[in-house]
Specification:
Layout lengths: L52 E8 L1 H4 L3 H15 L7 E8 L5 H11 L2 E3 L10 H6 L4 E2 L28 H11 L7 E6 L2 H16 L4 E7 L8 H4 L7
Parallel strand pairs: 1-2, 1-3, 3-4, 5-6
């Protein structure tokens, strides 16, 4: 069966290889030229790389959250890249590594065995697989990082300004307490989900608020699965706000 816009043919499920760049599809990505293009690749020089394909893993909690943004983005990007010729003629294949929230280590073990790299994904409990990833020298280009064990770890390129030690909300916190709502600076409250990932984010938020002169007088955690009535959390009490 011939793929639209390609000059190679897929027969009985065999992989494709594009040796001629389609005239209608550009391989440029922003200012980068020929990110994806045709070619004549040979051999299997690395884990996850064959004569015809490069497999990258995309971590996601989609089986738990039902949010498919990482999976959807991977499908769109790989479809565009493959339509432009793939990576020097190799098809770019995105393999979803669905942790279902709790199975990070199991999915990481699979990725270390099969994937060239981890690209464009994330998991709430990502730190549970960091030791395995580094032990097998698996590089990562995540869309998000969460736990301290993974945030800023080795063999990781995270495209967020400032790196893991930088408070990405510093400007907002400063505006909030000094311009937007200066009267609230001495009586702040933080509510986070009752899980390791969100508790860490709560601690980071408190540290950032204190750095710009805020005082956190109340903190609480709600069940990870959510609650049916938020009224108790919203009602101020003497020991709260």
């Amino acid at each position: 069966m011939r793929r639209s816009g390609r000059r190679d043919v897929r027969l009985r499920g065999r992989p494709w290889r594009l040796t001629t760049q389609p005239a209608s599809v550009t391989g440029d990505f922003g200012d980068l030229k020929d990110v994806c293009r045709a070619g004549e690749p040979k051999g299997s020089p690395a884990r996850g790389v064959t004569d015809d394909a490069i497999k990258v893993g995309v971590f996601s909690d989609v089986g738990f959250t039902k949010n498919s943004e990482f999976v959807d983005a991977a499908k769109v990007f790989t479809s565009w890249c493959n339509d432009a010729g793939g990576v020097n003629g190799r098809e770019l294949v995105a393999e979803t590594r669905d942790t279902k929230l709790l199975k990070v280590r199991q999915r990481m073990t699979e990725a270390c065995r099969e994937d060239f790299a981890l690209v464009g994904g994330g998991a709430a409990l990502d730190g549970n697989g960091t030791k395995e990833r580094l032990g097998r020298l698996l590089p990562e280009f995540p869309a998000q990082t969460v736990l301290l064990e993974n945030d800023g770890s080795d063999l990781q390129v995270y495209p967020v300004h400032g790196g893991p030690s930088y408070n990405r909300f510093a400007g907002y916190d400063n505006w909030l307490l000094k311009e937007g709502y200066p009267g609230s600076a001495g009586s702040l409250g933080i509510i986070v989900g009752d899980s390791p990932s969100t508790k860490i984010n709560g601690s980071k938020a408190e540290e950032g608020l204190k750095a710009v002169g805020g005082s956190v007088v109340y903190s609480d955690a709600y069940p990870t699965a959510g609650v049916s009535d938020w009224t108790p959390y919203a009602q101020p009490k003497d020991h709260r706000l």
